[in-house]
Design goal:
Length: 265
Amino acid sequence: LIGYPVEKSLSPDIHNLSFEINGIDGAYVALEVKPQDLGEAVGGIRALGIKGVNVTIPHKVEIIRHLDELDQEAELLGAVNTVKNIGGKLKGYNTDGRGFVELLKSSGVELKDKRVLMLGAGGASRAIAMSLGLEGVEEICILNRTEEKSKALAEEISSKIQGVSAVHKLCDPESYDLVVNCTSVGMYPDVSKVPLDVELLSERCVVADIVYKPLKTEFLARAEARGLKTVEGLGMLINQALLSEEIWTERDIEKEAVLEEFKKR
Ligand code: ATR
């Protein structure tokens, strides 16, 4: 992992645990790279023959000019969180949104032609909204405390992904099939806060939260108490991390066991 700072990242713990569970002969380390050293650090990936890296703040956009190729999602987002070294050629990917989408699909949630309500318009919201758009959802409504950001994001999604209607004003909360909290509301230490009243949602609505500290946010607890299906943030984080491993190793990675073991730690 390259970023600045990196010391609080959970990525080394997640990946080294997965390497053990999945029998991968590898080691994952977090390396602090200052912005002015990014070019040299990327050269080092080639020179040292490092198989792959994750990229985090502040390098996700800047790194693109040092890479040889981008996959579709990284191109659309203009941001990279995963790099694969293919015989010295570096290809950039972004698993931030796809990790979430694949977790939903593996939990049996259908996305095609569905209506999605996104809360928040930051980096996580943008990545997830883009991946949901690529899955063919019908409508994405983005709500944010700062309305200019949700307006800009809705316009960007509508213009980049054909067939998806993206809006930034709440119509009828009951009409949504999926709600995703992409704000930090409910995150430790303000654990009693919720980003939306779950009573407004229909009974078929799936409720997901990117916050993973606490594991079960108040928002998810209230949704569960109403009998709605919920998706926890830690699952999303781990799925997104393990998708990088699938890119690097070109094999299927067992994810459920990693999630369960990680929860025990
Ligand atoms: P990330 O990369 O996790 O998406 P981010 O880009 O900083 O992080 O985005 C944080 C999101 O949480 C934003 O949508 C932010 O709203 P603003 O754009 O108005 O700042 C939202 N957010 C953070 N704290 C919030 C709060 N107390 N109430 C409502 N929204 C909040």
